[in-house]
Amino acid sequence: MHQTPSDDRMKREARLLKEGRKKYIRELNKQLLQLRHWTEDAEPEDASETARRFYRIVHTLKGSAPMFGFARIGTLAENLVEHWEWSQDEEAVASPEARARFRRCSQASLALVLELELEIDTIARELEPDEQQGQLQRTLTPPQGERLLVIDDDDVLRAYLVRRLKLDGYEVDEAADVSSAQRLIRERSYDLISLDLMMHPDSGYELFEFLKEDPNLKLVPLIVLSGRSDVYDKVRCFYFGADDYVVKPFQYEELAARIYSLLKRTKTFEQMAFRDPLTGVYNRRYFDHQIQVELQRVARYPGTISMVFIDIDRFKSINDTYGHPIGDLVLQGLAHLLQANLRATDLIARFGGEEFVVVLPGTSAADAKKTIEGILRLTHQGPVAQNEGQSFHITFSAGVSEWQPDLTLSEWIRRADDAMYEAKQNGRNRVMLYTGDAAGTETDAAARKMVLIADDDNILRSILMAKLKHLPIDFKEAADGEEAYLELLGSPVDLCILDGVMPRLDGYGVLERMRERGTRPPHTKVLVLSGRSREEDTSRGMQLGANAYMHKPFSMVELELKVKELLELS
């Protein structure tokens, strides 16, 4: 067929556009590395200049990406521009708040940069489908220790897939049948599983229930490989929990791209869902999941494992004196110190506020204590954070508890928590081993104290009771001041934790009424909690007879110490 000059020109333009798009993506990858670095570096040497450079890159990207047909990249860049628009204001970048603002913006930008990475990886695969896998891998992030399980009863195909995946940098195990696969899954952790649907003697369907009934395996990506392209099979697999479905015969490059995409997406979602955005360590949600995995591993292969609770000493005074941005820097500094001095196999999570928990598999309580004491000594040797030439030093208190087969998880956590509180009571700046029920599990019922928690926030009441329940005390609750007043007139109360602001009658009104009517029980002590930090509120509470006063938000550690002090608990 004869081609006109117009046809030749269109082909040449299409070829040039494709080459331009490829070159654009290659250059964009370099810029993306810089953006990712800045979002993870909360303390650059020159925050103002770095913010300007960040803005220049994403602003240019916003305008150029749509020209090459990358509308999604342009949209993400536009969202990033909004975060960094302040860097174009001379007063803003010269302000003392510039560093703190940089930190907030870098944290807010992380999710968008991760989305940008996924989008660019997807485009790179679309632009270079016919090039060698090695060329593709130069564009994509190489595997970083991911372990895969290939399940297929076809010995030839299975061997081929294992060899190719290993060449691509993955760690790979293989199984020829369902029972062998189940044994491997019980013994090891996998980042992705590929499953042949039609096998003998059991089909791949038999493995679905095994995988999906275990909460620890539900998050593992699953790719089904099948010689059948029947829609019913595909729909059934997706309903059972498959993440992808590939029909045989297939090109290896396609499967490799699907595996890479699933692993990348899973890693990104994990970072967004399971990481504490401030410190980068795992969050409570991930801890609750992973600790079950660790205990199941100990059940299969008996060994030692220890838990450590760590709480920064006098952290509230840091926030009160220097402000929350400095408090955030201190939290980040301690998290970095822990990550740099613990093993990759140790689990570090931010448990809430200034509290961290560390789980050390294969470690006795005594060895865990030595490890954490070594990290505590490092806090004595230098600051954990610096800001505008000022250094910030901290110490922490830590409690260590070793797992015992007869323990429940909640009891194990409580023991580490108790040991940490004991470290606080013994002067802070130390690591204590759990040695027994210091809270007095054998205490007489008659020696138990009664505490009334009066607060209209039922969630806060529940949190307080959960945090204090290991002490030798019983609880009563009141949702407003009138109810609290009647409870105080009724059965004896040793301590009333009284919210300053409540409906019907506030905490100050309760104290005032008891004083005016002479109805306050002589042995009852009162701890006022208030979200207002005005000096006159504190003075008013103390004048009306409060024994102690704490501002919201408060440290649970300091609250428990105050409760123990008021109740004279050792």
TrEMBL record:
Annotated GO CC locations: plasma membrane
Domain HPt stretches: 13-119
Record CDD domains: GGDEF, REC
Designated name of the protein: Diguanylate cyclase
PTM annotation (Phosphohistidine): residues: 59
Residue intervals of the Response regulatory domain: 147-263, 450-567
Gene Ontology terms: biological process: cell adhesion involved in single-species biofilm formation; negative regulation of bacterial-type flagellum-dependent cell motility; phosphorelay signal transduction system
Domain named GGDEF: residues: 303-436
Superkingdom assignment: Bacteria
Modified residues (4-aspartylphosphate): 196, 499
Signal peptide positions on this chain: none
UniProt GO MF annotations: diguanylate cyclase activity
Keyword list, A-Z: Phosphoprotein
Originating organism: Paenibacillus tyrfis
Record Pfam families: GGDEF (PF00990), Hpt (PF01627), Response_reg (PF00072)
